Amino acid sequence: MQIKEIFSCSVEKACELPLFDTKVQAGYPSPADGYMSNSLDLNSHLIKHPKSTFFVQVTGDSMIDAGIRENDLLIVDKSLPPTNNKIVIAVINNEFTVKRLKFINDEAYLMPENKDFPPTKIENGTYIWGVVTSVIQQF
C-alpha cells in the first residue's frame, strides 16, 4: 500500500458541526432522542499538532484488514513517536508506504494488514515519516 498524495494541514478556520447528545448504538437500537447539545470542531478533534500534521491519500490494499482502503485519507502526525503496534507512514527506497510498526526481538518490522503481503524488516535507508492518527473514509 502506497501513498497517492500528501496534503499539508490548515486549521485556520474552525470546522464546527452539530454534535448530538445521544450516542449511536453499534448493537441493539436505542430510542432516537435527537438532542443536540454542542458543536464539535473537527480540526481540534482530529488534529493535535497542526504544524506537523499532514493528510495522505492511500493507494493499494496491503492494509485492508486494518480498515484502510484505496483512496482513504489518513491523518499523519510527524511529531508523535513511532511506537510498537502504531500504524505509520514509512519511507522505503524513497517511496512512502503505510504499515503497522512491530518490534520483535530488538528488530523493527513494517507489517502489512493483508495476508497476501510480506512483512518488511526496517534496515538502512528505511525510516518512519509519521504516525497515522485517523482514517477518513467515504462510503
Question: Tally of extended strands?
Answer: 10
Largest sheet: 8 strands, antiparallel
* Poorly predicted segments: none
How much of the sequence lies in strands comes to over 45%
* CATH architecture classification of the largest domain: Ribbon
Major sheet strand order:
1-4-5-10-6-7-8-9
What's the mean pLDDT score?
Answer: 85
Structural class: mainly beta
Number of helices: 1
The proportion of residues forming helix, as a percent range, comes to under 10%
Q: What is the CA-based Rg, rounded?
A: 18 Å
Order of helices and strands: EEEHEEEEEEE
- What distance separates the N and C termini? 20 Å
CATH class of the largest domain: Mainly Beta
CATH fold descriptor of the largest domain: Umud Fragment, subunit A
Shape: globular
Q: Name the CATH homologous superfamily of the largest domain.
A: Umud Fragment, subunit A
Describe it for me?
By secondary structure, the chain is mainly β. It has two domains: 2-8 and 50-136, Umud Fragment, subunit A (Ribbon), CATH 2.10.109.10; 16-45, no CATH class. It has one helix at 42-46, and strands spanning 2-8, 16-20, 36-41, 53-59, 73-77, 87-92, 95-104, 107-111, 120-121, 126-136. The strands form two sheets. Strands 1-4-5-10-6-7-8-9 form an eight-stranded antiparallel beta sheet, with no helix packed on it. A two-stranded antiparallel sheet has the order 2-3. The longest helix has 5 residues, at 42-46. The protein is globular. The mean pLDDT is 85. InterPro entries: LexA-like, LexA/Signal_pep-like_sf, LexA_repressor, Peptidase_S24_LexA, Peptidase_S24_S26A/B/C. One of its GO terms (molecular function) is DNA binding. This is Peptidase S24-like family protein. Residues 18-132 form the Peptidase S24/S26A/S26B/S26C domain. Keywords: Autocatalytic cleavage, DNA damage, DNA repair, Hydrolase, SOS response.
